[in-house]
Write a structure and sequence with these properties.
By secondary structure, the chain is mostly helical. The chain folds into two domains: 87 residues, no CATH class; 144 residues, DnaJ domain (Helix Hairpins, Orthogonal Bundle). Helices cover 60% and strands 7% of the residues. The chain is built from eight helices and three strands. A three-stranded antiparallel β-sheet has the order 1-2-3. A hairpin with a 3-residue loop joins strand 1 and strand 2. Helix 1 packs antiparallel against helix 2, helix 3 runs parallel beside helix 7 and helix 6 packs across helix 8. 21% of the residues are buried.
Length: 247
């Protein structure tokens, strides 16, 4: 009798410990932890009563059987509505305001460039050449001409640097020598586009839905309008990233 009483007294402690462990691991709220505690306590009490023979096993098996039968009958209907639910979820996610601090990243041979979505500003770091490791914001006016000359050997780097200068230093005037090729931006880049690269360009995370991809593309294209310091190179990279993820 005493052992059974002690066991019943231990059940709430065990339930609290289990709820506390799950709360710490998955960062549940206080309300969620409370429901976990109540659920674990109820399950433990039912399990002990069944073991002691005070509660028939059918008390648990009968409701579970009814639930399983209902789910089995509703399964075809649930499968039919699943695509619609996913579409509604994607639209809801796309309708939410873009989170603060969201950024797009472009990497070329000479540059690692970041576009801040909220501020619509660009900043970057030099990856190769005389100014390797330097932030673009730390370069003097004459340094940009040197960097442009170095980037002439890589079309993507050259056009990305020109995009940065056009947005952040609109007073800059390119010399004819530094303008580089006038063909399509990033020639051949679609061949090297990867999923991770495309997600970085659009500022998305793995698992993004179609509606989120379209919304991110639309948002970036508004910010990259020529009237706001955008250019053909940035727009083509954003378009290529969207096409890659959707196709």
């Amino acid at each position: 009798m005493i052992i059974r009483l002690l066991l019943l007294l231990l059940l709430p402690l065990i339930a609290y410990w289990l709820a506390q462990q799950l709360t710490q691991r998955f960062a549940f709220s206080q309300g969620q932890r409370r429901w976990l505690f109540i659920s674990f306590a109820a399950l433990l009490v039912v399990a002990v009563l069944i073991v002691l023979g005070r509660l028939p096993l059918q008390f648990i098996l009968a409701p579970l059987g009814l639930v399983a039968t209902a789910l089995f009958r509703l399964l075809p209907a649930m499968l039919r509505f699943l695509p619609m639910l996913r579409m509604l979820k994607g639209r809801a996610s796309a309708a939410q305001p873009r989170s603060k601090g969201q950024e797009s990243t472009l990497r070329t041979r000479f540059l690692a460039m970041v576009l801040d979505h909220e501020a619509a500003r660009m900043h970057g770091e030099v990856l190769e050449g005389r100014f390797v490791g330097r932030e673009l914001s730390s370069l003097a006016h004459e340094d940009f001409q040197t960097l442009l000359d170095e980037c002439r050997g890589d079309e993507d780097s050259l056009q990305l640097l020109q995009a940065f200068l056009a947005r952040e230093h609109p007073e800059w005037r390119f010399s004819s020598q530094a303008e580089g090729p006038s063909g399509s931006a990033g020639g051949g880049q679609d061949d090297t586009m990867t999923r991770d690269h495309a997600l970085d360009i659009l500022g998305l995370e793995e698992g993004a839905e179609r509606a989120e991809i379209v919304a991110a593309h639309r948002d970036l294209m508004r910010k990259l309008h020529p009237d706001r310091g955008g250019n053909d190179y940035l727009a083509q990279k954003v378009n290529a990233a969207k096409d890659f993820l959707l196709e």
